[in-house]
Structure formats: C-alpha cells, structure tokens
Amino acid sequence: MSKKITLVKYSAISAVVLFAASALAEPVADKLVIDDELEMMTRVAPPEGHPLSEIISGWHYRTPETRALEADSFQNPGMLGVELGEEFWNKVEGTAGKSCASCHDDAATSMKGVGAGYPKWHEKTGRPINLELQINQCRVENMGAEAYKFDKGGQKPLTAYIKHQSLGMPVKLNLEEGDMETWLEKGKDMYYKRTGQLNLSCASCHEKNNGKYIRADHLSQGNVNGFPTYRLKQGTLISTHNRFRGCIRDTRAEFPKAFSDPLMALELYVTWRGTGLSVETPGVRQ
Ligand code: HEC
Ligand code: HEC
Questions:
Q1: Residues 202 and 267 in one domain
Q2: How many domains in the chain?
Q3: pTM of the model
C-alpha cells in the first residue's frame, strides 16, 4: 500500500519535472557542413504517412560547441572509432584466414551507400537485418570467425566505419522486400505504446514534446541517422540498440535484449522516421 502511494507520487513529480519547464527554444537554424565541404541534409520534408511536418536531425538540438565538434572531422572524437573500424576491416581473423578487405576491398567504394539502406530484409532468417548482424553474418559464414557479442569487439567501430562511407547520403529503406511492412507496423506499435512506471512512449518525448527540455536535455525527434554516435558524457561510441535500451530504461520499463524482435522492429521504424536525412555517422551528442 505505502509502496503504491510512493509510485503515484513519483510519477506525478516526474510529469512536472519532465514537461512543465518547456522553454520552447527553437532549434538553431544553421547548416551542418562537414569540413567546410560536405553539406548535410538536416531538415527534410517527410515521406507519405509520416506523422511530423518536418524531419529534423538531432544535431540541431545540441549546443553550438557540440554541433561544431561534429562538423569538423579532425575534432570529432567519434572519428577515432571510425579509424579503429578501419583497422578491424583489414584484420585477418577466423579459420578462413580472411579479413573483410579480402572480399570487399576498399570500403570507400564497396560500402558507399550501403549503410544508408539498413535495416534490410534478410531472406534467410525471414526478418530484417541491421548492419551489426550483417557484419556478424560475414564473420561467421565467410571468415570462420566468431560473431561479436552486443557492443563488443569490432562491432561498434566496424558499424561506424561502414556507415561513415555513406556520410551525406540520404537514409532510404527498401520496404518492398519480404515482410518489411509488417515489421514496420510492429515497430510503430512499439513506438506509440506507453510503458513503464512513468507510462511514457517514445512518442511522448520525441514526437509530442520534441523541442522542449527534460532538465538540461533538449528533446530531439530521436532520429538514428548519426549512429553509432559519440556521446561526450560517456566518452565513447553508442550503438542504436544501446540508446533505445537507455531510453526505455528511463521510463522504468523492462527493456528488451539487443537484436531481439521488438528492438529490430523499433530500429526499422525509427530509421524510417528519419528518411531523407543525411547519414551523419559519427554524430556527436552530449
Ligand atoms: C569470403 C568473403 C567475405 C568476407 C571475408 C566478408 N564478407 Fe561481407 N559479404 C560477402 C558476400 C558474398 C556478401 C553478399 C551476400 C551476403 O549478404 O552474405 C557480403 C555482404 C556484406 C555486407 C552487405 C552489403 C550490402 O550491400 O548490404 C556487408 C555490410 C558486409 N558484407 C560486411 C563485411 C564485413 C564488415 C566483413 C568483415 C568482418 C565481411 N563482410 C567479410 C563476402 C564476404
Ligand atoms: C522520458 C523521455 C524519453 C522517452 C520516453 C524516450 N526518449 Fe529517447 N531520448 C530522450 C532524451 C532526453 C534524449 C537525449 C536528447 C535527444 O536527443 O532527444 C533521447 C535521445 C534519443 C535518441 C538519440 C537521438 C540523437 O539524435 O542522437 C534516440 C534514437 C532515441 N532517444 C530513441 C528513443 C526511442 C526509440 C524511444 C522509445 C523506446 C525513446 N527514445 C523514448 C528522452 C526520451
């Protein structure tokens, strides 16, 4: 009984903390240009059936200092992860005595545009596959090496390295293949479903309240076009599923495992919501 009262009290307070102090500061309207040469699409018109009138990259919501870090490859701390990814790309591992480069040569050519189209339909397993799982598949089936565990080994660096080869290219998914539409719907259901003790959905924060503040955090639309993204707070690259799990945990709900069906559906749907934004990997966030 007393426990219940505490909970009610808690969520009443959080509701105030979360949404009362909406400063409604407009995202600063400037352009993300990488190294003074590559102009990024950070605000685009949504595709048909999209709930928002404009899709905006999370970059716009960060402080001027953080935005400047992302715009300069020499200063962007996420680029260290990308460089590490290149080392993994060339590293021979597994019983076949091969590296990624043995088959795919120069990633700048073979992987250009690839990261902008994930998740993709995967016929063999009958579900969508993301870049992390595609890398694992190549390791197991083509190299005789072990699959990386979630966020371990070369998983984040290689994912960042491959995504980075699509820097500036628009996010675009192929929803025609297999059961992509069904999975997209599943992801949408998850996005709008209120869960946890705080009874919040992804949409509560990233759709209804984007542009407002949660304490010091300026709420973005929660797009994934900059992932894996460098978080200054954590001092490392953060994967998409890690970010999802963190956001779900913040609503005090049970959070599903990385690469589980619910999170794959969510990744598909959230990626679709960012259709047309430039791939920014590695993004920089507080
Ligand atoms: C023995 C050759 C071989 C090796 C080694 C290999 N791959 Fe592949 N890879 C393939 C083949 C063949 C395909 C296409 C068919 C498939 O999806 O399995 C592919 C597909 C891919 C794709 C998907 C491309 C697309 O257009 O969607 C990615 C990404 C990829 N590999 C990354 C890697 C990475 C990263 C490594 C190293 C960890 C690696 N591969 C090692 C042969 C290889
Ligand atoms: C209680 C509010 C809240 C809820 C609910 C929430 N998030 Fe977040 N989320 C945040 C905050 C705060 C940040 C960091 C600031 C920002 O980018 O919005 C964030 C960041 C993100 C980012 C990184 C955006 C970027 O540009 O780097 C993604 C992606 C994301 N959330 C996805 C989700 C998904 C998917 C859900 C539902 C499972 C969800 N969030 C639920 C508060 C929330």
A1: yes
A2: 2
A3: 0.92
